[in-house]
Design brief:
Strand order of the largest sheet: 2-1-3-4-5
Largest sheet: 5 strands, parallel
Number of strands: 14
Number of helices: 21
Helix content: 40-55%
CATH topology of the largest domain: Rossmann fold
CATH architecture of the largest domain: 3-Layer(aba) Sandwich
CATH superfamily of the largest domain: P-loop containing nucleotide triphosphate hydrolases
Number of domains: 4
Structural class: alpha/beta
Amino acid sequence: MSRVLIVDDEPAICWGFRELLAEDGHDVQIAPSAEEGLQLAEQHRPDAVILDVRLPGLDGLSAIEHFRQRVGDVPIIVITAFGNLDTAVRAIEQGAFDYLPKPFDLDQVSEVVRRALREGSGEKPLMRGDADGGLAEGPDAIIGQSQAMQQVFKKIALASRTDVSVLITGESGTGKELVAKAIHRHSLRSDGPFVPVCLAALSPNVIESELFGHVRGAFTGADSDRKGLLELAHGGTVFLDEIGDVPLAIQVKLLRAIEHREVVPVGDARPRRIDFRVIVATHQSLPELIAAGRFREDLYYRLSVFQIELPPLRDRREDIPVLAEYFLRQLASRSGKAQTARMPAAESIGVRFDQEAESNGTGLPAQRFTDAALRELMARPWYGNVRELRNAVEHAAVVSRTGEIGPEALPDPLQFQTGRPESLDEMLRRYTEAWTLRATDKERRTEREGDLHRQFLRVVEPVLLQTAVKACHGNRAAAARLLGIHRATLRQKLRQYGLETVREPIAEEEE
């Protein structure tokens, strides 16, 4: 029987862990603080520790080193409800076995504990030192409180521990270069250069010399030797954005450079040894490009040792108020205006901010979004993702001449549209989300309390039924089959909504 120590000050969490792990056959002990946890660990020598970050007294991240000193390399699983990139990186840096942001799936917890017990103390910290601490601010910040972004933070932290190739996927505007920078900044190569390369912006005629360099006289205009971008990344990281746009002929040479850590400049026959890490990104599906014969399969496997997929903004809408506040604060800082005030509007829809508002003492009004503006921001599809949101926020801040930014200050969504067509399903989801947000704001919440589902059905169900009957040319039996309901149910609902005037043809087919 394995011994598992739970260090958490939330009784409900501890009870859930005890029930779960006891059912898995483990002996579970509980401590409400790091100090008590360290005492129990010394007495009973646990086989694994589950450690919360926020604890009374000594915090969980600081306690990791104390556990190491007292009980050796016991696997420590860090859990937190207040995760960000800083927390994830610090946990991995301190040698945590794994990092689980709350809320988590119980099956996931069981699997992580089993893996920790199986692998034992095999996990060793590859990095030490203090975390940056400034990960949530600055131009390269990655902002997000959603569960999806917590998983991204964890993957960034894990990727930072190794030197393997990383493939970052996601739609345009999701922040792929920011993720690459974060991986580099927290890796052992952080003192070396970070060389970003947008391959889509390079002409096929020059991409080879740009990547691998050239010697004097290699081609017309080559008046001197020039190092390529891969060589300039020596000792650091090269970030190849839009890797799917690399011509097949160059892919062969790139594969050799990555595998053998050497480049051959254009016009030269002598390879040059280089030491670099490669991180690539794309908004395309590389497996689809492979199937189409436009991307080498061997290069794909070499580049995708570790993969990070970034969620589109519409799949993490709870981060939109946080991002909007951040962009306002950034703009105010750049323009010398007062810092953005803490946003009560965001808190009214359930978003919590840990940082208090700041002011630079200029006396100018701090800007904030109204409830209506936030609802509009959260209802939009954001096909341009975070980049589009940033443009919209900056536009609204410039247009608004007062401290409050209303929906009228936001640009038309088509102004920053990427050209991607919106599917009917996406349109339906967007309008449903907008309707729900408007129906649940503070002014309307009381009158709709306990009746929201029925009211929504009264809006959409009549349209669905009437349109289905019309699509079947008035044939209610055919419409019922299309809808997947009984004909009598359809007739009853049409009567309920006052739609009896939708007539059946005389020769209606039988069911």
